[in-house]
Each structure stands twice: as structure tokens, then as C-alpha cells.
Amino acid sequence: TTLMERDAGSVRLTGMGELLLEHARQVLRQTELLIEATNNAALYDGTLRLGVTEMIVHTWLRDFLKALKQDYPNVNVELTVDLSVNLKKSLFDRSIDLAFQNGPFNRSTSGSNDLGTYAWIWVASPALTLPHGRDITVDQLAEHPILTHARDTQTFDEIMTHFRTHAKLVPRLVPSSNLSSCLHMTLDGMGVATVPISMVRQELERGELIQLDYTWVPNNLQFQARYDADKTPYYVAKAAKLASDIALRYAQDLTPARG
Q1: Of all residues in the chain, what percent carry a pLDDT higher than 70?
Q2: Which of 2, 87, 146, 222 is most buried, with most CB under 10 Å away?
Q3: What are the 10-residue block averages of pLDDT along the chain, 259 residues in total?
Q4: Is residue 246 helix, strand or coil?
Q5: Which of 97, 116, 117 is nearest to 244 (CA)?
Q6: pLDDT 10s digits, 39-75
Q7: How far apart are CA 123 and CA 209, in angstroms?
Q8: What is the helix, strand, coil percentage profile of the chain, to 5?
Q9: Cα separation of 123 and 255, whole Å?
Q10: Vertex 247 angle, CA 94 and 74, to 5°
């Protein structure tokens, strides 16, 4: 019996192949239920292809990986760090099993867990001598390069629209797909930036950056752990729930800093 057929350079399962694949998934699910019944997560053995955004790397990813290794010692992690828009593509073409990404989510997944909401703030190096502790105007910001997230992000679009609408000056927007580089340039006084507050708590506490009192910020980042609950191993759902627990505890510890 033929299980696969070729068509115009592609390969797809026949009806019989699809039927056998579904039976194979049912066998795997029963095996996973048996592992669950033993209450021994160490019996899970496999690879978790995980995609995360850079902000996750700078916040609670290390805590998650340590907890995952402790709970599931035989599950290895293949890590991809990328923009959310690229992680979405990877998730739906099955290049990764689990994505920790921010919205907007214009396609739904059968599995998802809340990872919290993260607010943006405006920051600058004290060397720029911008007004500190009182309102700053849009044109005072626009006098400096505006260091932003990458062009293919909703945040960049919001910042570009805001300055085009409200500023008399034409700002110089400097997008970067690497938030670490954006942060380093801000520390070196190369411009002002809007960044998630969770990324700059230490720099604010040490006085390396000051928080600017500007009334507008981009919309908060809403993060989710997203996966295909029907076609991925059960430990993927367990990893998503573990990430949610860690991320929400982390978010509760965040308090707005006024530098």
C-alpha cells in the first residue's frame, strides 16, 4: 500500500498514510499518558525546538531552562532567538515546537499559555543632559536619534506614526533587530530609546540610564507560549505551562522605576 505520493516536486501522504499517521499519534499519546501516570517526568526523552524573542533572553529564559532541565532531564533544547514575526512563521511551518513570542497574534494555535505583559519606557544616558524628573516634549526627544526595535515590528510602526504625527522636527529613527545593541548605543549616549522596563532595571538602579518623563509609549508587549497541542509531544505543553508560571512570577516582581 502506498503511503506517500509525489506531485509537482512535493511529497504528501495518501489517505492511508494519513490514517496510519493518526494511529501513530494515538499510540504516542497513550505512551505519554502512561508516563504521566508514573509521575516520573525523567521518562520523557526527546528534543524541544524552542523559539524565543530577545527580550525573553534578557529576562527569565535562564530560570526557565534551569527549571526545565531539573523537571525533564532527558529533554534537550534546541534554541532559536529571533523576532516574533519570524518565530510565528517557524511555528506554523513546524521548524520549532514552541514559541515564546509577543503579539499581535493573527493566527490562533491549539495550545497557548499567558506569559505576561511588559511595558515600555523611554530612557537615555545622563550624558545627554535631557530634562530629568519633569515632562519632556516630543521635539526634545526628536532632537536626538530615536533608537528603536526592528522595522518588521509593531512597536517600530507605532513609534514612526507617533513622531510623524506629533513632532515638528523630523526624527532620525535608528531601528535594530538586536535589542542588546540598541541598549548599548543608548548607554553610550548615541540616542534616546524606548525599551521594555524589564530589560533596564539594573542600568536604572546604577544610574547608567535615566527614565525620561514622556507621556507616550508604545503599546505594551503581550507574550504567549504558543504550540500545536495536537501534533507535538506532551512535554511541549508541560514546558509551556512551566514557562507561564515562571514568567508571571517574574512579571509580578516588576515595578515601574523612576530614575
Answers
A1: 79
A2: 87
A3: 58 58 55 56 80 93 96 94 94 96 92 94 92 81 92 91 91 90 94 92 93 93 94 90 95 56
A4: helix
A5: 116
A6: 656 656 889 999 999 999 989 999 999 999 998 999 9
A7: 6
A8: 40, 25, 35
A9: 16
A10: 55
